[in-house]
Design brief:
Length: 154
């Protein structure tokens, strides 16, 4: 039997912990149920997938994740200004509040309130981890080949 490595056509079961540079844990599956995904399906940013590509079951690594491999750099065009009156029904509107908005296609889009003045509200739609260097601790638990061929129904 051929040994599998993390890559295309492989379903991965893993534990991970994502930390900020100061050590603050952003997300972790250690101590809980492991994550499971198929390489290349878009569950993880492609840059993070690239960092774990080639790992094998039983392997554990701690990897630095630069912004370009993680959640990208902040885009100034993703910071929008709204009239304060558009938020008249929002209680406790304050800096740091995460709110749900609908984009043009009516899909849910989270935004972080960056500034509240008497006349306007500034909302940042960049990913909260954009521009941040992270540390990824990953342990590959199990690798399974995925049958990517379409089966003939006859």
């Amino acid at each position: 039997m051929t040994e599998l490595f993390v890559g295309h056509g492989v379903q991965i079961t893993l534990h991970f912990e994502l930390r900020l540079e100061d050590g603050e844990v952003v997300d972790s599956t250690f101590g809980g149920k492991p994550g499971r995904f198929t390489f290349g399906e878009g569950t993880l940013p492609s840059g993070i997938e690239g960092l774990i590509q080639g790992m094998k079951a039983g392997e554990r690594q701690s990897l630095p994740v630069k912004p370009e491999h993680g959640f990208g750099m902040p885009n100034p065009q993703n910071i929008q200004r709204f009239k304060r009156e558009d938020f008249a029904t929002v209680e406790n509107l304050q800096t740091g509040l995460v709110m749900s908005f609908a984009d043009a296609a009516k899909a849910e889009l989270p935004g972080v309130i960056r500034e509240v003045t008497e006349d306007e509200v500034v909302v940042d739609f960049n990913h909260p981890l954009a521009g941040r260097t992270l540390e990824l601790d990953v342990e590959i638990i199990k690798l399974e080949a995925v049958d990517t061929e379409v089966k003939d129904a006859n």
